[in-house]
Design goal:
With 295 residues, the protein is α+β, with helices and mostly antiparallel strands. It has 8 helices and 4 strands, in the order H-H-H-H-H-H-H-E-E-H-E-E.
Length: 295
């Protein structure tokens, strides 16, 4: 929550600096960078709301909790990035044929580039913080926000280099051309953010290495059972849901089979803290040839 709130404050300061840079320089490329910074502020507000909503416990209306709010927020962030790309494209196309003269480096352009450089450095540092915390806490909203800020840093570096080159070569057309390239770049990032978040909304399974560790934990701690099969896992932000069928000997008592389930659950929660586990106990005739054999 503190990180998300910090993103709003940092984003607001960066947007103010980039807007001032665009104003004093009259640069289309710097305007496009300021527009992207405005999206950063909006996405940070969305991320904060999603974290607040996602932290709510399960209730009678949402039995599996509210963790998908973060994924919905990430989809919305990606959509806003795409809208920003379209607005930048329109602005750039309007000036690419008859580009206005660039301000001198000793005047508005130099001040604008300096302001943008400072704002970009702040964004880069904050992006690394967001992605580190987001991955540690399995927060898609924070990770998406961090990736966007990192792309913003790359964009800023490209703008600074291109405008310096345009000034030295006296080629003002490079200003709107750079803006067009920025529009394409952030459109790609926005599309990737949307697709990745939609995959999460469709209950994407965790990476193969995580699945292998889970299967190994089941085999190791299911002593007394025969085999486990139909293991299914899905991650929803910081939450995880795991279910499988556990085949036990027919003569085993309910207490003994329950004790095996308790051992497995304890081990799995070491691998996936906060995971919700459902184990369906079955008799020997339900065993499958492709199940995980318990040694």
């Amino acid at each position: 929550m503190k990180i998300a709130l910090g993103s709003i404050l940092v984003g607001g300061a960066v947007f103010g600096a980039k807007l001032a840079a665009a104003h004093v320089s009259h640069s289309t490329a710097l305007f496009s960078d300021a527009l992207e910074a405005m999206v950063n502020v909006a996405s940070s507000l969305l991320a904060l709301y999603a974290l607040i909503l996602g932290a709510k416990p399960a209730d009678q209306v949402h039995n599996y909790g509210h963790a998908k709010a973060e994924l919905i927020s990430a989809v919305a962030t990606g959509a806003m990035i795409l809208i920003a790309a379209m607005l930048i494209f329109q602005r750039a196309m309007a000036t690419v044929v008859h580009p206005p003269a660039l301000e001198p480096l000793t005047g508005g352009l130099g001040v604008g580039l300096a302001l943008n450089g400072v704002a970009g450095a702040i964004n880069g540092l904050w992006a690394m913080m967001l992605m580190r915390v987001g991955r540690a806490h399995k927060s898609p909203a924070l990770v998406a926000d961090g990736k966007h800020l990192l792309s913003d840093l790359i964009t800023t570096i490209g703008i600074l280099a291109a405008l310096l080159l345009a000034s030295f070569l006296h080629m003002p057309v490079l200003d709107p051309v750079v803006a067009l390239l920025i529009a394409v770049q952030i459109a790609w990032i926005g599309g990737h953010t949307v697709m990745d978040s939609l995959s999460g909304l469709m209950d994407r399974a965790p990476p193969p290495d995580m699945q292998e560790r889970i299967q190994a934990a089941v085999r190791e701690h299911a002593t007394g059972a025969i085999e486990a099969h139909d293991l299914r896992i899905r991650e929803v932000g910081a939450a995880g849901f795991l279910e499988f069928h556990l085949v036990v000997p027919g003569e085993m008592s309910v207490n003994d089979s329950h004790a095996i389930c308790d051992r497995i659950e304890a081990a799995l929660k070491q691998e996936m803290p906060g995971v919700v586990i459902t184990i369906h106990v079955e008799p020997p005739e339900k065993a499958k040839t492709d199940g995980a054999i318990v040694p």
